[in-house]
Design brief:
single chain, 91 residues, mainly alpha, two-stranded antiparallel ribbon, 2 helices, 4% strand
Length: 91
């Protein structure tokens, strides 16, 4: 199978207690970056290099179990249409 680079040369810094939002054009890689930073990859997508440092440790090295411990406690992903999930009219 052919390898295609979806996102490259990304560097983000976030101070403790702050919130980070990604904005950009459709198809720019915002969701891919956000999901990848938490260890999620859409079908066939994988992280091939780099590091994700959280509180001094590279969370990419923690494997699936490491990500499970972080999600919802130290990192979270809020999708663009997440507010609709809380609207009782959208059942």
């Amino acid at each position: 199978p052919k390898t295609i680079t979806l996102v490259h040369d990304v560097s983000l810094t976030l101070e403790k207690g702050k919130v980070l939002g990604l904005i950009g054009e459709s198809g720019a890689g915002k969701s891919t970056i956000g999901l990848s930073s938490m260890g999620y990859g859409r079908g066939g997508v994988r992280i091939t290099g780099g590091e994700v440092i959280l509180n001094g440790r590279d969370i990419l090295k923690g494997g699936k179990e490491g990500f499970r411990r972080l999600r919802g406690r130290e990192v979270c992903y809020v999708a663009q249409s997440a507010a609709a999930a809380f609207n009782p009219a959208h059942r």
